[in-house]
Amino acid sequence: MLRPLEPVSNAARVGLGVLFFVLFVALWAWATLGGYVSRTFLADPLTMAREGYELLVKHGFLYDIGMTIWRVVGGFVLAAVIAVPLGILMGTYKPIEAFFEPFVSFARYLPASAFIPLLILWAGIGETQKLLVIFIGSVFQLILMVAVAVAGTRRDLVEAAYTLGAKDWGIINRVLIPSSAPAIAEILRLVLGWAWTYVIVAELIGSSSGIGHMIVDSQALLNTGQIIFGIIVIGLIGLVSDFLFKLVNRLLFPWSLA
Amino acid sequence: MSKLKIEGVSRTFPPSRQGGEPTRALEPTSLSVADNDFITILGPSGCGKSTLLRIVAGLDRATSGQVLLDGAPVEGPGPDRGMVFQSYTLFPWLTIAQNIAFGLRERGMPEAERLKIAHEWCQRVGLRGFEQHYPKQLSGGMQQRTAIARVLANNPKIMLLDEPFGALDNQTRALMQETLLEIWERERKTVMFVTHDIEESIFLASRVVVMSARPGRVKADIRVDLPYPRHYTIKTSPEFSALKAQLTELIRSEAQIAAAH
Fold this sequence. Notes:
The complex is a heterodimer.
Chain A (H helix, E strand, L loop, with lengths): L9 H24 L11 H14 L2 H32 L1 H15 L7 H8 L3 H25 L3 H9 L4 H37 L6 H10 L3 H29 L6
Chain B lengths: L1 E12 L9 E12 L3 E5 L6 H9 L6 E6 L2 E2 L7 E4 L11 H5 L1 H5 L4 H14 L15 H14 L4 E5 L7 H18 L2 E6 L2 H7 L2 E5 L6 E6 L14 H23 L1
Helix pairs in contact in B: 4-5, 5-6, 7-8
């Protein structure tokens, strides 16, 4: 049955993927509804669904979801606008890479969440501060990964372009960028996922809206159903954005697939 | 009249580690290629024949000596010296027609005009109907035909080929040789073709330059006086066999030296 690297049929793949969720919810229901875990610590699935419904209908949770999405997207776009061109330049020109790389490598390890107190001091507790947390959390990762992707362009393609008369600008514009575009899109997809973890942290502190803010509020009320619902919503949004990204990549780069 | 002049070109690679010995890849080599000539550079692997070709292309720098094309020294890569590589170097994000038109685009030719030329070349190398395909959808032989068309569409002064059929199976390779020869008989471009395949070097060339094992230098320079147009059956003719025997002797001793290292 199980053999190393043996492919799995599409139907089986979907079935197995769904099966995990079913088992997970079943285990959760068994533990909570069966009374093995105190409701104070963990709400059962039904309570969670009811709380979620109330959140959406009575407490305007959709607004919170919208706020969170806007912060992630806003901070992420800001980071991408700076990181992608800089990454391309670093990947292309070795002196530029030598100039930025050590600092970016250092900054990459600075935890974005540790900047929150400073950012509150500098930018207040408004939207700017939230965007900055996402920005700091993603920009350095993006720069380095994009630079590596561009630098990894096949040398023989660059050489072929040179012997066809391409100048530096042609090499960057019509070889390096198109050749690394699918990899860059993949990097954006990956780092967007990380940005989601930063936004919740940013909203846990000094925020009056967003999914993270709702979770903190629910904690004060010991409403674990709402907390779990919030976490599941984040997961679902992540899943959807991931799917959209993959779809767009497939449409944009048909050549990179078989 | 000589199109290309290689004057005392040598290449020494710096040592890979501190205090190591530098590698002499190519001894000072002089060679001149006549206009419209098809020469093959034949040698065992690692004899510096590809290095020599890359220096002509401007992709590598000579340690000493210089390369003159139409009397002007070669400073770097340029569209007057189109190159076909052993690896498949079509741009995977461009269609076959766009690949062929790449050099024309770099030159700033309007799109309609360059696509017209690309379509003509598709036809000439037998790729009609594949204009809108991506390289991945084509076989290795078809990709190399596209690569040849991509260079020729650019109308270079000289075409450089670095073991372009090395990765193809034997049957495809034989067909590709015929295609290339047909194109050459029609276009009469100056061609410099690097290979380690003796039969290939004779069948294609009007002149075979044999190189010695590392460090490379010219060991023999042999004219191939087989008539054009050449048919593949020429490979079994007595003249062809005699040349093949002669070159096999020359190459064998070099291959033994190369293998001993």
